[in-house]
Specification:
Largest sheet: 10 strands, mixed
Distance between the termini: 7 Å
Strand content: 15-25%
Oligomer: single chain
Radius of gyration: 20 Å
Number of helices: 12
Number of strands: 20
Bound molecules: inosinic acid
C-alpha cells in the first residue's frame, strides 16, 4: 500500500503539479510544501472555477486535509494572508487545523522583495524576494518564523496560531500511517544544485529538498513521481535547447495557455526533451511519471522528441547543465506522427488515438520509467489512470 507520494517537477516548473496534487489530495490526509515560496503558482480548476495557489499547499481545496508548509520554504506573511483571504472569499476555510507553518521557515521581508525587483532581472526571477530571503538564511542573518512571531511584527498575531514544530508533527503523521503528499514546487532544472545554474531558483526543488525542507528521513519517502509536460516550457531566462520559435511555438502557447501563473509572463515552448526527463528520473529516483497536457498536442502536426545533443561532432545522450553545450549543441530529434482528434474528453487509455499511445510508449521507453497517469485537460475529470500501484 502506498503510504506517501512525492510529486516533483521534472522540467522547468509549470508541469501541472497543482492539478495532479489536487487530484491526489482527495485520498491524502496531509499535503506538504517543502521548498520555495510564493514564486510558485499552482493552477487548479474546481467546478470550472480557476484557483491559483502560491504558497498554501493545494490540499486546502479539499475539506479536512492538513496542509503543511515546511522549514525549507520562505514565507512572505503579507502574501500568505492575502492568499488566505482570497480562499476564504471563495468559501474555502483556512484554520490552524487545516494549515500548519514551520517555525523554522524563513521570512521574506519587504527589503528582500525590493532587492529581488532591482537585481533579479538577469535571471528573470518572479520578483517575489525568494533569492534574497534564501541568501539571508544561508548567510545566517535571516529571520525565522519563530523569531518573527516573538517580536512585534505586522502579522505576528495572525501568524502565531498556525506555527508549529513541523518535523515533530511529520513524525507523528508518519507513525499514524497518514497518507502524505509532498508537493514539489518549481522543477528539477530550476533546482539550485541540479538546475541550469545560475538560471535557477534558490532552493532544492528535487527529492532531497523533502528531507531537509520538512525534517524527515529519506527512507520515509515511499513513492516519487515526476510530473512531466508532454512538451517543455520555460519562463524566465536561461538555456532551453528544444525551444520552438515562430508560429508553432505561438500556437502551442495559445492552446496550452502557457502564461506564468504568478507573473503572467509568456512561457517559451519546446519539444519533449528526453535528456531532461532521464536526468530528472535519475536525480529524483522516479518510480513513475505523470504526463500532463497531452491534449495540447492534438492537431499540431508531426511531433518531435529530442534524444540527443550533438556537440563538437559527438552525440550526448545524458543531460548536462553545462551552458556552453546547452547553448551550442545541435539537436537530435525523432519525429512521430501526431493526431488530430480532441482527446480532452478521454477517460481511458483505450480511448486515445493510436498515435497518442505511440507517443506515450516512446517516452516511456526512452526515459525508462512507467507512466502512471496521463492528464488531458485542467479539470479533475480529465485524468486517465494507467497504473494504480503508484498511487493511493
Ligand atoms: P525565483 O524563484 O523567483 O528566484 O526565480 C528564479 C527562476 O525560477 C526564474 O527563471 C523563474 O521564472 C523561475 N521560477 C520560479 N518559480 C517558478 C515556478 O513556479 N514555475 C516556473 N518557473 C519558476
Amino acid at each position: 500500500m502506498t503510504k506517501n507520494i512525492a510529486i516533483l517537477g521534472s522540467q522547468f516548473g509549470d508541469e501541472g503539479k497543482g492539478k495532479i496534487i489536487d487530484y491526489l489530495s482527495e485520498k491524502a490526509d496531509v499535503v506538504c510544501r517543502f521548498a520555495g515560496g510564493n514564486n510558485a503558482g499552482h493552477t487548479i480548476v474546481v467546478d470550472g472555477k480557476q484557483v491559483i495557489l502560491h504558497l498554501i499547499p493545494s490540499g486546502i481545496l479539499h475539506k479536512g486535509k492538513i496542509n503543511v508548509v515546511g522549514n525549507g520554504t520562505v514565507i512572505d506573511p503579507k502574501v500568505l494572508f492575502a492568499e488566505i483571504e482570497g480562499l476564504q472569499k471563495n468559501g474555502i476555510e483556512v484554520t490552524p487545523e487545516s494549515l500548519v507553518i514551520s517555525e523554522n521557515a524563513h521570512v521574506i521581508l519587504p527589503e528582500h522583495v525590493d532587492e529581488d525587483k532591482k537585481t533579479g532581472g538577469k535571471i528573470g526571477t518572479t520578483g517575489r524576494g525568494i533569492g534574497p530571503a534564501y541568501a539571508a538564511k544561508v548567510s545566517r542573518r535571516g529571520l525565522r518564523v519563530v523569531n518573527y512571531i516573538d517580536k512585534n511584527h505586522e502579522y505576528s498575531e495572525k501568524l502565531r496560531p498556525f506555527v508549529k514544530d513541523v518535523s515533530l508533527l511529520m513524525d507523528q503523521f508518519l507513525n499514524e500511517n497518514k497518507k502524505i503528499l509532498f508537493e514539489g514546487a518549481q522543477g528539477t532544472l530550476l533546482d539550485i544544485d541540479h538546475g541550469t545554474y545560475p538560471y535557477v531558483t534558490s532552493s532544492n526543488s528535487t527529492v532531497g529538498g523533502i528531507c531537509t525542507g520538512l525534517g524527515i528521513a529519506p527512507k520515509k519517502i515511499d513513492k516519487v513521481i515526476g510530473i512531466t509536460k508532454a512538451y517543455v516550457t520555460r519562463v524566465g531566462n536561461g538555456p532551453f535547447p528544444t525551444e520552438i520559435k515562430g508560429e508553432l511555438g505561438e500556437s502551442l502557447r495559445k492552446v496550452g495557455k502557457e502564461f506564468g501563473a504568478t507573473t503572467g509572463r509568456p512561457r517559451s515552448i519546446g519539444w519533449f526533451d528526453a535528456l531532461i526527463s532521464k536526468y530528472a528520473a535519475r536525480i529524483n529516483g522516479f518510480d513513475a511519471i505523470i504526463i500532463t497536457k497531452l491534449d495540447v498536442l492534438s492537431g499540431q502536426g508531426k511531433l518531435k522528441i529530442c534524444t540527443g545533443y550533438k556537440y563538437k561532432g559527438k552525440v550526448i545522450e545524458n543531460f548536462t547543465t553545462n551552458s556552453e553545450i546547452l547553448e551550442n549543441c545541435e539537436l537530435v530529434y525523432e519525429e512521430l506522427d501526431g493526431w488530430e482528434e480532441d482527446i480532452s474528453k478521454a477517460t481511458k487509455y483505450e480511448e486515445l488515438p493510436e498515435n497518442a499511445k505511440r507517443y506515450l510508449k516512446r517516452i516511456e521507453k526512452i526515459v525508462k520509467v512507467p507512466i502512471c497517469i496521463v492528464s488531458v485537460g485542467p479539470g479533475r475529470k480529465q485524468t486517465i489512470i494507467l497504473k494504480k500501484e503508484f498511487l493511493f
